[in-house]
Amino acid sequence: MSSNPDFDRWYAAKSARFLVEPTHQLETFGNTLVNYHLISELPDHPGKVRVREGRLEAHQPVVITPRFAPVEMEGFGDEAREYLDFLRESEKHLRILRYGYHLKSDNFSEQIVTDRLSVVSERVKSAVIASNDRFAAVVQCVDDPWDVALVELWLREVNRSARGNIDDLQKNGKLF
């Protein structure tokens, strides 16, 4: 780690390599458990690899509808007032999906393996693919701050699932 925690977080997020990603989108009408496997080489210990396993619970997306309260506008022109009026009139058509997540520690495990990072990564990747777990992920990441990789995993899954979740909500009349 450097002396700059902002850089460390940025580096951890950008260097995460997603070796296996879930094959199914996050559930639209329920919570989803994503089984993660994080693999990282121990700094200053060549040939030592940490494998972390656990569950990331992605909460059911919630539809949020904005409410534009009366706004006092001073010093704004007619265009700004008309735009705010448009937003107020259109608010019944605006929807935002909010996703939440929870890191589960009840299934968390961690082990140190003596081998090359590439060998351990391939072994874990092969085992996860063979398990046919459609909500499993394997991520190669830095050892510290390793949990940034989990946030990246969650963000990727939300981005990947949002369109399908919106379509599901639309079909079931839950969006409008």
Topology:
Blueprint: H1 5-15, E1 17-20, E2 32-41, E3 48-58, E4 62-64, H2 78-90, E5 96-98, E6 101-114, H3 117-131, E7 136-140, H4 147-171
Parallel strand pairs: 2-7
Antiparallel strand pairs: 1-7, 2-3, 3-6, 4-5
Task: Name a few traits of the molecule.
elongated; two-stranded antiparallel sheet; 176 residues; 5-stranded mixed beta sheet; alpha+beta
Distance separating the two termini: 47 Å
Helical/strand content category = alpha+beta
Strand percent estimate? 25-35%
Instruction: Enumerate the strands of the largest sheet in spatial order, edge to edge or round the barrel.
Output: 1-7-2-3-6
Morphology call: elongated
Our count of domains comes out at 1
Number of strands: 7
Tally of individual helices: 4
Order of helices and strands: HEEEEHEEHEH
